[in-house]
Design brief:
The chain is α+β, with helices and mostly antiparallel strands. It has 2 domains: 107 residues, Arc Repressor Mutant, subunit A, CATH 1.10.10.60; 149 residues, Alpha-Beta Barrel (Multidrug-efflux Transporter 1 Regulator Bmrr, Chain A). Helix content is 44%, strand content 18%. It has 10 helices and 8 strands. An 8-stranded antiparallel sheet has the order 1-6-8-7-3-4-2-5, covered by helices on one side.
Length: 282
């Protein structure tokens, strides 16, 4: 396939991904998405599944449930309202689907999910309840795609990143998936939050838009290993800063924090997601 053809598929992947994220509250319209991709539904769906490893319907279901989990943890929306927003005709069907994926029905997840464990640990000042190790790393060179807005929406930037890597023939299985988060969501308005979806790379010559070069400083980091849904991550950060750091006697180095994703949300249940949070230390 020629470079021009690759560029065409890259643009189509970006358009489809942007449409899915912008219309999560609507019914999945395969014909409309095919129009955006400028290919028949038969061909486009095969391309999408080959690139991303799941069907369009599976993508929409996963993203809606991920957003629902975040709403349960971070908002006061009722379960009924979250079910309707997630496209379920009644709360019973939403409860069944959510429990099958997250291990608990929505109401219990809100009260008893893994995010509650971090809250309890923080309130009790338990500094050893979670696995934190000290690691010294070499500097990292990354390929990144910028994201603005809620950190829970960075998946769209990862879609763009992987679509671009695929279209340009740059993807390698040994690339590590990394998220860089530049702002504190407690201090910065949600729509102004800055982050980057990244992969590790050794090919610095490949930095053409939308890819941008990013680097991670070498040095020592406190690394918290988190298992569970991404919606729980804010509680993990609160515990790392408010409990572990306070009891560690260490000081933060003026460098960016980052997350390393050890498995893929397309391939494992949310309760099995493994993330390492890297806090730079002096």
């Amino acid at each position: 396939m020629t470079g021009g053809s690759w560029a065409t598929y890259e643009r189509r992947l970006h358009r489809v991904s942007a449409h899915i994220y912008a219309h999560l509250d609507e019914e999945l319209d395969v014909d409309r998405i095919s129009e955006i991709a400028c290919l028949s539904p038969h061909h486009w769906h095969r391309i999408y599944r080959a690139v991303y490893g799941e069907t369009l319907a599976a993508t929409v279901k996963r993203l809606r449930l991920q957003r629902a989990a975040a709403d349960l943890v971070q908002s006061e929306l009722t379960v009924d309202a979250i079910a309707r927003r997630s496209g379920y005709p009644n709360v019973q069907s939403f409860n069944r689907t959510f429990k099958a994926v997250y291990g608990l029905p929505p109401a219990r997840y809100r009260k008893e999910g893994s995010h509650k464990t971090f809250e309890t640990a923080s309130m009790e000042g338990n500094a050893v309840m979670y696995e934190v190790t000290l690691k010294t790393i070499d500097p990292l060179t990354l390929l990144g795609v910028a994201h603005s807005g809620s950190y829970m929406g960075i998946g769209q930037a990862f879609e763009t990143l992987y679509g671009t890597l695929f279209a340009r023939g740059l993807f390698r299985p040994d690339m590590e998936m990394i998220g860089i988060y530049l702002d504190d969501p407690e201090l910065v308005e949600t729509d102004k939050l800055r982050s980057f979806a990244c992969v590790t790379t050794k090919d610095e010559a490949a930095m053409e838009a939308p890819l941008t070069p990013q680097t991670i400083d070498g040095g020592q980091y406190a690394v918290l290993r988190h298992k569970g849904p991404y919606a729980d991550m804010p509680k993990a950060y609160q515990w790392l800063y408010g409990t572990w750091l306070q009891n560690s006697g260490r000081e933060i180095r003026d460098s960016v924090m980052f997350e390393k994703y050890l498995n893929n949300p397309r391939e494992v249940a949310p309760t099995e997601l493994l993330t390492e949070i890297y806090l730079p230390l002096k």
